[in-house]
């Protein structure tokens, strides 16, 4: 399904980017402080949920645009969305993930 241009205007994309910057920075801050703690996993799950909702509502082109903006803006890797192994290694495949 193609993104609806009336929903995915520049203002919407900017707002989505700002929100995901906040989630991504919160995840990396918690991860740096406490590794794969519950707090870090909470923020990783929030980030993944918003990313998935953005894809469902606006489509892949908007999701890819926002993720590209996130990478350029924050210089932080996009976390894996799937489950972690007992040792903290992501399991499965996530084509959006950088780490």
Task: Write a brief structural summary.
With 99 residues, this protein is mostly helical.
Please give a structural write-up:
This protein has 99 residues and is mostly helical. It has a domain of 63 residues. It contains three helices and no strands. Helix 1 runs antiparallel to helix 2, helix 1 crosses helix 3 and helix 2 packs across helix 3. The longest helix has 25 residues. It is globular.
Order of helices and strands: HHH
Shape: globular
β-sheet strand percentage: under 5%
Rg to the nearest angstrom?
14 Å
Q: What gap, in angstroms, lies between the N and C termini? A: 28 Å
Helix content: 55-70%
Identify low-pLDDT runs: none
Helices, by number, come to: 3
Number of strands: 0
Biggest sheet record: none
Which helices and strands appear, and what pairs or packs with what?
Blueprint: H1 10-34, H2 38-58, H3 60-74
Helix pairs in contact: 1-2, 1-3, 2-3
């Amino acid at each position: 399904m193609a993104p609806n241009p009336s929903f995915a205007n520049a203002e919407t994309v900017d707002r989505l980017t700002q929100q995901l910057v906040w989630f991504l920075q919160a995840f990396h801050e918690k991860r740096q402080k406490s590794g794969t703690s519950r707090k870090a996993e909470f923020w990783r799950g929030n980030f993944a949920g918003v990313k998935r909702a953005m894809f469902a509502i606006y489509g892949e082109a908007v999701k890819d645009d926002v993720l590209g903006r996130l990478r350029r803006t924050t210089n932080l890797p996009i976390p894996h969305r799937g489950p972690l192994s007992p040792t903290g290694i992501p399991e499965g495949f996530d084509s959006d993930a950088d780490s």
